[in-house]
Design a protein that fits this description.
InterPro entries: AhpD-like. It is built from eight helices and two strands; from the N terminus they run H-H-H-H-H-H-H-H-E-E. The protein is mainly α and about 180 residues long. It folds into two domains: about 1-45, no CATH class; about 50-175, AhpD-like.
C-alpha cells in the first residue's frame, strides 16, 4: 500500500515538471528502505536556509550543469521558474553571463564553479559569501551544491543517465556553458 501511495506522488512530480521519474520508481520497486532513505535526502537537497531563492538556484543550476546537461538540469530550470526566478537570470546563470546578474548571484555562480573545480579561488570567494550571508549561508550553499551532484550520479549508476541535451527555457533553447577547470 505504501508503495502505491509513494508511486502516486512520483507520478504527480513527473507530470508537474515533465520529468522522467523512472529511476526513482526503480528504487521504490527494488528496495523500499533505500527509497525512504532517498526521500530523506530530498529534504536535505531542498534546504535553502537564510538564502534568497535566486542565490540557491544559482548554486543548484551551476552544480547540476557540472555533472549533467540533460533532464536533471531541465528539472532544476523548471523549479527555478516555479520559484519566481526570472528567465533572463536563469539564462545568464546557465550561460555563466555573470555581468547580467545581480552581484550576489554572480558571486555564487563563480563560487560554485570554483568549488566544483577545486579551484583555490574559492577561498577568497568563500570569505565574501560569509560576509554577506554568514556561516549559515555558506552551509546552505554547501548543501545546495553537493546535493545536486547526487541525482546525476545515481541516475547514471542505475542506467538512467542521458547524454547532453539542450535546455528549454520558455521559448529559448540553451546550450549550457560550464567551465570545469
Amino acid at each position: 500500500m505504501i508503495r502505491l501511495l509513494l508511486n502516486k506522488t512520483l507520478r504527480s512530480t513527473a507530470q508537474r515538471y515533465d520529468y522522467d521519474v523512472g529511476y526513482m520508481q526503480d528504487i521504490l520497486t527494488t528496495d523500499l528502505s533505500a527509497f525512504l532513505r532517498f526521500m530523506g535526502f530530498q529534504t536535505m537537497a531542498s534546504y535553502s536556509g537564510n538564502l534568497p531563492a535566486e542565490v540557491v538556484y544559482a548554486a543548484r543550476l551551476r552544480a547540476i550543469l557540472f555533472d549533467d546537461c540533460g533532464p536533471c538540469t531541465q528539472l532544476v530550470v523548471n523549479m527555478a521558474l516555479e520559484a519566481g526566478i526570472s528567465a533572463e537570470h536563469i539564462r545568464a546563470i546557465i550561460a555563466k553571463d555573470v555581468h547580467q546578474l545581480p552581484p550576489e548571484v554572480a558571486l555564487v555562480v563563480e563560487f560554485t564553479d570554483c568549488v566544483l573545480a577545486h579551484n583555490t579561488q574559492a577561498d577568497e570567494l568563500r570569505e565574501k559569501i560569509q560576509t554577506v550571508w554568514g556561516q549559515k549561508g555558506l552551509v546552505s550553499l554547501g548543501l545546495a551544491i553537493s546535493s545536486m551532484r547526487v541525482y546525476p550520479t545515481l541516475k547514471y549508476t542505475l542506467g538512467y543517465g542521458k547524454s547532453c541535451s539542450r535546455i528549454t527555457l520558455n521559448d529559448l533553447s540553451l546550450t549550457p556553458n560550464i567551465d570545469r577547470f
